[in-house]
Structures are given as structure tokens and as C-alpha cells.
Design a protein that fits this description.
single chain; alpha/beta; binds adenosine-5'-triphosphate; AAA+_ATPase; 10 strands; nucleotide-binding; ABC transporter ATP-binding protein; ABC_transporter-like_ATP-bd; 6-stranded mixed sheet
Length: about 270
Amino acid sequence: MTASTLEPIIQVRGLRNQFGEQVVHDKLDLDVRPGEIIGVVGGSGSGKSVLLRSIIGLRDPDAGDVQVLGVDGRSRDDEDRRHIERNTGVLFQDGALFSSLTVGENVQVPLKEHHPELPESLLYELALLKVKLAGLPPDALDKLPSQLSGGMRKRAGLARALALDPPLLFLDEPTAGLDPIGAAAFDHLTRTLQQALGLTVFLITHDLDTLYAICDRVAVLAEKRVIAVGPLAEIERMDHPWVQEYFNGPRGRAARDGHRRIVETRD
Ligand SMILES: Nc1ncnc2c1ncn2[C@@H]1O[C@H](COP(=O)(O)OP(=O)(O)OP(=O)(O)O)[C@@H](O)[C@H]1O
């Protein structure tokens, strides 16, 4: 069975989000298929982060339905909330690590919350495993976030997002602020983990290289909704001014050419 024939892992219908007079989303629909990396793109302020927050329940939308992992994403029922929390990992744009806790302690936060019965020694081992999985050296475990580089902090945030072995991972601009080598390494890590652990990844990005390198499909946010979703090859041919400027502007062309060169060398 291919990913496209499976029930969506996230289904958003008729979403509306409004702040005062400002309507950010109106009649927004989106399906995310299990096992895919979907890249969510759109101009600054188009509502990518608000969409993420609406899906994971950090914001109650003004209208619409959100289904996540088989439950109503808008439900306030404790069991539904725990189901979503237990099965999703989120890497926020700024990492959102607790600055007074070590990396290991940060990773242990969700573990302690959902598995308070686990002994300290096992919590430590699990945190170490996640830190290694995120590509950090073991000694990062005892460091404070402020003692790490930006790229390492992202990886620490990823380690925490993976703490509960969630099948669904949300990444909000994971490569923002990283140098090109660090960004490419993070893309590679995301793809490797997604394949090895069978994850579904909802990835907000401005990074064209990331889209070309690892996304199975791309969803474009514009005009308060998802105006298109599909493989990049389809999206970049769309006759829409923002899409044309984004994908066929100088940076878009450079990313596409760079990706083609990598594919040709590989083949
Ligand atoms: N809590 C809030 N109160 C008022 N306005 C908000 C709030 N959260 C978001 N907005 C507004 O909603 C719009 C969409 O914000 P959002 O952060 O989702 O954009 P984005 O597409 O992620 O942008 P960027 O690419 O710049 O990160 C923005 O105009 C923002 O100012």
C-alpha cells in the first residue's frame, strides 16, 4: 500500500484563524499522509506557524475541523490531548529549550511527564539515546543550551521532540540560522530519521534546498489557504505569482540546479 492510499494522519477542513480584524486562514484544507515529509511554504506572515499551532492544539481555531492521529485535534478531553501529545514531537523555531536545564534534563521533561514511573537510570539512558539519535556527542547531555552552538541547540530540540518515539514530527524552520553545511546535515538527519523510524514529518521552511533535498510533497500557503499541494515538480510549474517568484526566482533556480547536479552525480 502506498502512502497516498492510506488515511491522512492529519486532516484539516475549513480552518479559520483570525486575530482581531486580521484573517490569517479562511476555508483552509490540508491532508498530510502517513510516512511523508510535507514541506509547508508561504510568504512571511502567511500563517504557517499558526497552522502548526492549530494542528497540535496550542491554538483553538475560530472555525473548522482538525483531525490528528485519529482524534479531534480541537478536543479538550484529557485523554485526547494526551494521545496527541504522546504521539507528536515538535521542534519549535527557537528550539524552546529550558535554559536552566541541561540537554539531558530537557529531553527527560516529556519522558517524566508521560512516564513518571521510569527510574532515574533509565531516564538517563533514554535521554542519552535520543541525544545520540539527534547526532550530538554524548557529552552534550550534561551541557546547558547556552553552551551549545545554534546547530547543536537545534539537534538538542530534535532530541527532545523524539523523546517519546512519536510517529508524527513537526519541525518549524529547522534550518533557519544554520550555515549551508549545517543545514544540509540537518536535512540529511531528518530524512534518515524519517526513513529509519517511519516518521511523518510536517516541516515549515523557507529553505529551498531543504524542499528539494527531502520533501515528498509541498503545501503552499497563500490567500489565507493552501492553494496547492503536491510534488515539487508540479508545484514549481503552477501559474501563481508567489509560486513563480519563489520557485523560479534566482534562489529557486539555484536550489533546483544544485539538486539536479546532486542527483546526476549520485546516479
Ligand atoms: N498570538 C497572535 N496574536 C496576534 N496576531 C498573531 C498571533 N500569532 C500570529 N499572529 C499573526 O498571524 C499572522 C501569521 O503568523 P505566522 O507566525 O503563522 O506566520 P508565518 O507564515 O509562520 O511567518 P514567518 O514565515 O515570518 O515565520 C502574522 O501576521 C502574525 O502577526
